[in-house]
Amino acid sequence: MKILVGIKRVIDFNVRVRVKPDGSGVDLDGAKMSINPFDEIALEEALRLREAGKASEVIVISIGPNACQQQLRTGLAMGADRAIQVDTEEKLQPLAAARVFLALVEKEQPGLVIVGKQAIDDDNSQTGQMLAALWNRPQATFASEVVLEDQVARVTREVDAGLETIEIDLPAVITTDLRLNEPRFVKLPDIMKAKRKPLEVIPLADLAITNDNKLTIDHYAPPASREKGIMVDSAEALVAELKNRGLL
Amino acid sequence: MNKILIISEHNGSELSNSTAKCVSCAIETGGSVHILVLAADAADIAAQAAALNGVDEVISINHPNYSHAMAATLAPEIAAVGADYSHVYGPSSTYGRDLMPRVAALLGVNQVADIMTVKGSRSFQRPVYAGNAIIDVSVAEEMTVVATIRLASWAAASGGNNATISSRETTAEMPTHSRFIDLKTEGGDLPDLQSAKRVISGGRGLGSEENFKIIYALASKLGAGVGASRAAVDAGYVPNDMQVGQTGKIISPDLYMAFGISGAIQHITGIKDAGTIVAINKDAEAPIFEVADIGLVGDLFTVIPEIEAAI
Ligand SMILES: Cc1cc2nc3c(=O)[nH]c(=O)nc-3n(C[C@H](O)[C@H](O)[C@H](O)COP(=O)(O)OP(=O)(O)OC[C@H]3O[C@@H](n4cnc5c(N)ncnc54)[C@H](O)[C@@H]3O)c2cc1C
């Protein structure tokens, strides 16, 4: 069984994000870029399934310009067997991204597609669910545990009320939450080895997907800032201040 | 004129507060407001939905498969009903975040996630980059607006209404490839984080599950909900549904008190809408003090008993 894993190149989660003064976007100049943390977890899960003998091949996919080959190489160094870059300068919205994945699903016929539950740039949390809808297959979102038996996955999901367990027939889409696993560190020899692993570049146009019904995003603004607070020097002073403000 | 369909959230018998928040967003958007209730036994829930002010009609559909229904089961029916509407709204809870993109894809549109404010009937503001930027998003005239509503940004619509309820039959095919097994909830009797007026949170600074008891004790004294940082959840001090932040719950209590939480941006995202933020941390340089309205540098294990003594 093949597993497809989506990995998105995003600003590293440790970088402080600033909106450009002209409101045209956020300032990414020189910022450290990484694999979206949730996607790294998706890849780790796929690798563990392969290592447990439940999958035969792990393919990492990224949609974007050549720069995202850097993240694909990291994915290969982590242990993916091969990589596919769907080459485009355009930032695809989730529906188009899901259509790209569907085109690759039709080509590769995987048993599982694993992606992060959201990307930490757009925070959309849509692509996995949309792929499942277009593919007409099950989805298990926000996974914190995945158990594979034959053609069935038993997935524990982190939901507002607690932990929900569901069973889905393969092929299916799983989206990952943070507690699913802890991704491995990449070792130097693996980085060298990754250079020899196959990385296929497919121009977006070759997949002939429809890229319509886009949302118009026309302005970025910094969030409203909170007023500067005060410091108190004792628990008594804190309680007095809270009573004073009618909060206790 | 806009026709807005709200997808209700419920637990099989009770309508969630999140639906009332969606109603507020729909009223702001403008147009007629309908609520869709899909349940194994929808009558009670539909009556609760019909009581919300601003609602014009409730559509209820009963089906045994709708008990513990999953997105794959619900989405086709919602897309079929939603095709007659200009807007389809759902809550940005885990329920809505799972379901609504699936609905959007079936309707062939992108989804607007986490509406904070309505600027026009097809233009909205939403947060990106963990709330570090707010973007303006608009949806073209020919597209259905499918959206989730950011719960911390909206007050619940009030009750007292008596909207008409109509029943329908299911029309869409239901898949058999997805099955519910069980749901484990651990929250107990604590007030719900997303509607609590006061929330007391603990972080890695608590050090253990055992130590976390002092947080529960203070919370119960104050009638507060209990939250946690991701580090506290990861370390196993508390269950996952208590996580506050970018990838946990976004909350908006009147009072938020953080003990032993450093204030990582992913945590702050979840508390920005709180009325008053109080931070107790032994490190004077902790970033949480940058957003706190009231800060106290100190050891939480001595400060908590002192607070209890003072109230
Ligand atoms: C993709 C992604 C998503 C994330 N989502 C979330 C999220 O939703 N929510 C979230 O919370 N985090 C999230 N995180 C994690 C986040 O980056 C931080 O790692 C986490 O919030 C840290 O938790 P903490 O403040 O409890 O722990 P720490 O950062 O370790 O801070 C512990 C604090 O406790 C203080 N302390 C220790 N002992 C005491 C004492 N006795 N008295 C007083 N103070 C004491 C210390 O000074 C320190 O400031 C996410 C991270 C990533 C990468």
Please specify the SSE layout and strand pairing.
The complex is a heterodimer of chains A (about 250) and B (about 300).
Chain A: E1 2-6, E2 9-11, E3 33-35, H1 37-51, E4 57-64, H2 69-78, E5 82-87, H3 94-108, E6 112-116, H4 127-135, E7 139-149, E8 152-159, E9 162-169, E10 172-176, H5 188-194, E11 199-203, E12 216-221, E13 230-232, H6 235-244
Parallel strand pairs in A: 1-4, 1-6, 4-5, 5-11, 6-10, 7-10
Antiparallel strand pairs in A: 2-3, 7-8, 8-9
Chain B: E1 3-7, H1 17-29, E2 32-39, H2 43-50, E3 57-62, H3 71-82, E4 87-91, H4 94-106, E5 111-115, E6 117-120, E7 123-128, E8 133-138, E9 145-149, E10 164-168, E11 178-184, E12 198-202, H5 213-222, E13 225-228, H6 230-234, E14 255-259, H7 265-268, E15 276-281, H8 288-291, E16 294-297, H9 300-310
Flavin-adenine dinucleotide sits at the interface of chains B and A.
Keywords:
heterodimer; A: 248 residues; alpha/beta; Rossmann fold; 9-stranded mixed β-sheet; two-stranded antiparallel ribbon; B: Rossmann fold; 7-stranded parallel β-sheet; 5-stranded parallel β-sheet; 9 helices; 26% helix
Describe this structure in words.
The complex is a heterodimer of chains A (248) and B (311). Chain A is an alpha/beta fold. Chain A has one domain (2-244): HUPs (Rossmann fold, 3-Layer(aba) Sandwich). Chain A has six helices and 13 strands. In chain A, the strands form two sheets. A nine-stranded mixed sheet of chain A has the order 9-8-7-10-6-1-4-5-11, sandwiched between helices. In chain A, strands 2-3 form a two-stranded antiparallel sheet. In chain A, helix 2 crosses helix 5 and helix 3 packs across helix 4. The mean pLDDT of chain A is 97. Chain B is of the alpha/beta class. Chain B has two domains: 3-168, Rossmann fold, CATH 3.40.50; 198-310, 3-Layer(aba) Sandwich (Rossmann fold), CATH 3.40.50. Chain B is built from nine helices and 16 strands. Chain B has helices spanning 17-29, 43-50, 71-82, 94-106, 213-222, 230-234, 265-268, 288-291, 300-310; strands at 3-7, 32-39, 57-62, 87-91, 111-115, 117-120, 123-128, 133-138, 145-149, 164-168, 178-184, 198-202, 225-228, 255-259, 276-281, 294-297. A seven-stranded parallel sheet of chain B has the order 5-9-4-1-2-3-10, sandwiched between helices. Classes of the chains: A alpha/beta (248), B alpha/beta (311). The structure holds flavin-adenine dinucleotide. Flavin-adenine dinucleotide sits between chains B (203-205, 229-232, 243-248, 260-262, 264, 266-267, 270, 281-283, 286, 299-301) and A (13, 37, 120, 178).
